[in-house]
Amino acid sequence: MLYYLFEYLDKTMDVPGTGVFQYITFRSALAILLSLMISTIYGKKIITFLRNQQVGETVRELGLDGQTQKAGTPTMGGLIIIVSTLIPVILLTKLNNIYIILLIVTTLWMGTIGFIDDYIKIFKKDKQGLKGIFKVIGQVGLGLIVGSVLYFNPSVTVRERSNKPMTFNQSENVISQTPIDYKSTTTTIPFTKNNELDYAQILKPFTDDYQNWAWLVFIPIVIFIITAVSNGANLTDGIDGLAAGTSAISVLALGIFTFVSGNIFFSDYLNIMYIPNSGEMTVFISAFVGSLIGFLWYNSYPASVFMGDTGSLTIGGIIAVLAISVRKELLLPVLCAIFFAENLSVIMQVSYFKYTKKRFGEGRRIFLMSPLHHHYQKKGYHESKIVTRFWIVAILLAIVSIVTLKLR
Questions:
Q1: CB-based contacts of 103: which residues, under 8 Å, 6+ apart?
Q2: Contact of 300 with 388, CB cutoff 8 Å
Q3: Segments of 317-383 assigned E as strands
Q4: CA 193/CA 350 separation, integer angstroms
């Protein structure tokens, strides 16, 4: 909203200083400051409200140190993340940008699923929460929406590389030469020299008209990624500060990818795919990072609030949609390796337990406990040490991911 106000003041009334709102960098800086302020100042009020409503965590006895002390801690704190992200986004972004629309829909969609799950756990006293099948249906539904919009919407394009000289013209993402934008299901393959893959090529052996049927491959891939990453974030949210901290690091790295991919000059210099209009997502990312860091003020050990599924499912959904939109989804196994390790540890544990029970009559375990962070708790590590080391690993993974811009 403020973007359009200042744009009007700049173009029609020529008010000094209003033109600064044209710049993504300025609005991004403003977004992170505003979201930090909202999450830290008003986060306390939300926590107090949740405590007064007796929205407390019900802790299952798992034999973990310090577990019983967490009982009654307010949950549904993901509302802090959602509110402090959306307010700066609504104020500072171009709300007609298709990527911003998708991210707002993702935030509200996944936040609603998580909220229903938390509501059932707390107020209906059902520890299982929303049934898994309904969570999956919700994730698949979002995947269908995101995949369909990214494939069919005419505003989602990539720009053909050109050897013509480029000149800077007022805005960070505008060039003087005539651009050639086209629809594409091309994505980026990390660590390779010719690092682009067109999903449509998968259908090439089956039909000559494969380009028109690329959605049969693209949309299921989007559904799988959104489901996998949101579930991974959900599993990672098991100890104080783990999910919020690692997510903030991953999202910050995605912000760098988004900025350079949405800027014609940086994308040309780095010889990477230029995605028109995608740079606007940098403002959303800045607001999101600010809200995650602000939430950590209250979620770090010992936590005053838990994000619940309201927050964890929302975080995973946003990260997945950001990566897909900026054509970096194949980098997620590196950038979000912690999420995938948590997911994999559960899959391995359950599968091996069922296999050994069927074969030997007694279930056996690979880990002392899953997800992975609970394994280290069982080994005697304090949760704050586990979180700090996971953050360090997340930083290393983010650096490796950023290096892939030129390492190919």
A1: 89, 281, 284, 318, 321, 322
A2: no
A3: none
A4: 38
Q: What is the pLDDT of residues 92-143, one digit of tens each?
A: 999 999 999 999 999 999 999 999 999 998 888 887 889 989 999 999 999 9
Q: For the whole model, what pTM was predicted?
A: 0.92
The residue count of the chain comes to 408
- How far lies 138's CA from each of 148, 230, 398, 401, in Å? 15, 11, 29, 29
Q: Convert the pLDDT of each residue in 217-227 to its tens digit.
A: 999 999 999 99
Alpha helices in 63-197, H assignment, sequence order: 78-92, 98-123, 132-152
As a whole number of Å, the end-to-end CA separation of the chain is 41
CB-CB contact of 322 with 254 (8 Å): yes
35 with 288: CB under 8 angstroms? Answer: yes
Question: What span, in angstroms and rounded, lies between the C-alpha atoms of 50 and 48?
Answer: 5
Residues 326 and 224: beta-carbon distance below 8 Å: no
